[in-house]
Specification:
It is a single chain. By secondary structure, the protein is mainly alpha-helical. It has one domain. The protein is built from five helices and no strands. The longest helix has 25 residues. The chain is globular, with a radius of gyration of 15 Å. The two termini are 30 Å apart.
Length: 124
Amino acid sequence: MDIIKHIGRIVFALPFLVFGINHFIYAQMLSGIVPPYIPGGVIWVYITGAALIAASLSIAANKLVKVSGLLLALLLLMFILTLHIPGLSNPKMAQMAMAGLLKDTAMMGGAIMASAFFGKWEKK
């Protein structure tokens, strides 16, 4: 059964790697969804892309999963609060916002579970 848990951990990490890479490939396009009240614009796209890639690699490698899982859950919560919930008020974008909200909520739950099941505090 351990092999199934490890396959699941890697499969869970893979979309975050793809999302992170897409943040670098499509940075200018994604900068348009950064809320206008947050200064910095495209720099946040690069920062979140790097965070998604780092979390993915950490979870896939089973290193520092407790920290990276919780930080990933926090990042997803920030997406929910700053992008998806405000997007629900726009009738043209409400359906996409709800899909993103549900996707990120599910992935946030997965990140918390990965943190609990695979995470351990590393000792030096």
